[in-house]
Amino acid sequence: ARFGIAFQNNALFDHLTDGDNIAFPLRRLFKNLSEEEIRARVADRLKVVSLPGFEDRSPPSLSGGQKKRVAVARATVAATGSVLIYDEPAAGLDPVTSQKIFDLLKQEQGNATVIMVSSDLDRMLTVTDRVGMMVQGRIIFDGTTQEAKDSTNPYVHQFVHGLTEGPL
User: Fold this and answer.
1) Angle formed by the axes of helices 18-29 and 64-77, to 10°?
2) Mean of pLDDT over the chain
3) What ranges in 10-153 are assigned the alpha helix state H?
4) How far apart are CA 50 and CA 161, in angstroms?
5) Is the pTM of this model over 0.85?
6) Burial, 143: exposed, middle or buried (Cβ in 10 Å; 0-12, 13-18, 19+)?
7) I need a labelling partner for 78 at 20 to 30 A (CA). Which of 43, 68, 120, 153 fits?
8) What is the dihedral of CA 87, 72, 61, 42, to 10 degrees?
9) What is the DSSP letter of 79?
10) pLDDT tens for residues 146-167?
């Protein structure tokens, strides 16, 4: 219950409604919650991700950005604020929708620690406070977002600035 995870491919159950997808972790982890409480939490999460009234829709009927937002709603519905993990939260989305997703993640962070894996650095760096970088299984950088942008480490510099020349 301390962790919320949004997977790169959203991992929504196509045979469940959006509401039931979001309620899934609540029903599994909190047996003491009434269906009324669960429905209220689901409705709140859908409102927060700008999808009010989508409880009865199904994942196959949603756009890519809507699926991402349902996945974020599910990731944050049960987590008690400790750790949120996002794997490529804007993969496959257009630039405008990608920025909206990153803005939503920043808004929903609260006091949680967020671990985000993303290759969309331009947008990710607009919402991060700290950056870590691994190369071949070793952490080679850990610092603020600004320190990452200013880094002289050749790996970090090449990656953060999207350069084609360098050690990567």
Assistant:
1) 20
2) 90
3) 18-29, 35-48, 64-77, 95-108, 121-124, 145-150
4) 32
5) no
6) middle
7) 120
8) 150
9) -
10) 999 999 999 999 999 989 999 9
